[in-house]
Amino acid sequence: MKGNVLVGQSGGPTAVINSSLAGVFKTAMERGFNKVYGMRYGIQGFMDEQYVDLSEYIKNELDLELLKRTPSAFLGTCRYKLPEIHEDKAVYERIFELLDKLDIEVFIYIGGNDSMDTIRKLFDYSLLTGAKQKFVGCPKTIDNDLAITDHTPGFGSAAKYIATSTKEIICDAMGFSYKKKNVNIVEIMGRNAGWLTGAAGLCRGEDCEGPDLIYLPELPFSVENFVQEVKGLLEKKDVVVAVVSEGIKTEEGKYVCECASANTTTDAFGHIQMSGTASYLATVIKNELGCKTRAVELSTLQRAAAHMASRVDVDEAFNVGGATVKAADEGSSGVMVVIDRVSDDPYQSATGVYDVHRIANDEKMVPRKWINEAGNYVTEEFLDYVRPLIQGHYQPMMVEGLPRHLSIHMKNYDWSAPRGK
Predict the structure, then answer these.
(1) Quick check: 247 and 192 in contact, CB under 8 A?
(2) Which residues, at least 6 apart from 391, have a Cβ–Cβ distance to it below 8 Å?
(3) Which residues contact 304 (CB under 8 A, 6 or more apart)?
(4) N or C: which end of the chain has fewer CB within 10 A?
(5) Could you report the per-residue pLDDT of 106-150, keeping only the tens digit for each?
(6) What would the 3-class secondary structure string for 297-359 be?
(7) Domain harbouring 168, CATH code
(8) Is residue 146 part of a domain?
(9) How far apart, in whole angstroms, are the C-alpha atoms of residue 24 and residue 110?
(10) Three-state secondary structure call for residue 290
């Protein structure tokens, strides 16, 4: 009889991260594994013996469908950096002790760059000790910055939300344009990669001219040049909408968000907590040009908007989750499942596996050729790459006018009890 599967979620969530979890659970059950345990709050929670039997929450196809439509990390997530093996062997002894205790045969981690680093380290330790477990990474990140894979689950839905929101912001700004000059600056997530920021350009079409400027972190950003470009546009039109990445840097390599606040904090992996880029630039424009400005930071909405999920993204996330189980069941370990683009028209993709050592701690950037010569917009080739990933809609299950989700926190909630007025 087969052993058990252990799955965890790590890093920032996405609108479809739980679709991958659903894919793991369904495929593991179909392939005859005994149980699927879920780590509560990733590897950090697991070391404190925080885990659940997912069969207690996913009891039928309806639960599975609800899970696929549920935003955030159903199991809870963490940003915990495993030490190198030679730095703290006791951490690994603790983890593998628990894996043996639960008769874990397959360890799956759903996450991005840092999560693949966890898979790498656990796999390397298993080689040193001859441990029986298989370790497979399941890709996830709205940033789309994982190497080797064509794109990552989560990116398509975030891109869809960003393009939709940018279009709505432009419509809103145009409504206030009569005899008024106004500048709207929209800040997009993505850290050092501009995939999400560039996706704002998708809203350009017959009914919307799209944003006027798009700045990706792949190229140095000049505040002075930005002011001059906005000034030039305001001489021709009343409304300017600029989209900027949270991770844009000056020629000197300083994040623009650091200009907004000297009190920046970092996470366990040394990543600066980015926020305030749009607010800073809006203040600069207001002071320099004297016009009305508005800063819009979409923030966590970009990764939480399951109601705006792309069907392509949901389906691929589910398939990738299933592919991780399949890969481990067929003997693979120390790998991450990747998405290969088979064709653009019609769009088709397939899954494969790749050595996690080639993926962990690497960042995939937007190619220079996909940014225009002036460095303030993306090319049609970039938009053609993203457009297939936002197609289709995964309709939420609505109850009393709101989407219904599957919640690990509400397992024993009494829905018949009186609620506050």
Answers:
(1) yes
(2) 310, 311, 312, 347
(3) 13, 15, 71, 72
(4) C
(5) 999 999 999 999 999 999 999 999 999 999 999 999 999 999 999
(6) ECCCHHHHCHHHCCHHHHHHHHHHHHHHHHHHHCCCCCEEEEEEEEEECCEEEEEEEEEHHHC
(7) 3.40.50.460
(8) no
(9) 10
(10) coil
Give me the residue label for tokens 């040193």. 128
Task: Quickly tell me which residue has 């969530």 as its tokens.
Answer: 13
Number of H helices and number of E strands within the chain?
A: 13, 13
Distance of CA 64 to the CA centre of its chain: 21
Range 207-212 contact pairs with CB under 8 angstroms and sequence separation of 24 or more: 208/167, 208/170, 208/171, 209/170, 210/166, 210/167, 210/170, 211/166, 211/170, 211/186, 211/241, 211/242, 211/243, 212/237, 212/240, 212/241, 212/242
Q: In one letter, which amino acid is 212? A: D
Question: How far is the C-alpha of 162 from the C-alpha of 124, rounded, in Å?
Answer: 38
- Annotation says 143 is catalytic: yes
Cis amide prior to 396 (ω within 30 degrees):
no
- Residue 134 to residue 240: CA distance in whole angstroms: 52
* Cα angle 4, 5, 11; round to 5: 155
Selecting among 114, 117, 143, 145, the annotated active-site residue is: 143
Identify whether 369 is part of a domain: no
pLDDT digits (tens, 9 = 90+) for 252-280: 999 998 886 654 555 555 556 677 899 99
On whether residue 374 sits in a domain, the answer given is: no
Using DSSP's 3-state secondary structure scheme, residue 405 falls into: coil
Residue 312: which CATH number? Answer: 3.40.50.450
Local confidence band at 409 (pLDDT 50, 70, 90 cut-offs) = confident
Q: Which residues of 307-324 are buried (b: 16+ CB within 10 A; e: fewer)?
A: bbbbbbbbbbbbbbbbbb
**Strand 134-139 and strand 104-111: pairing?**
parallel
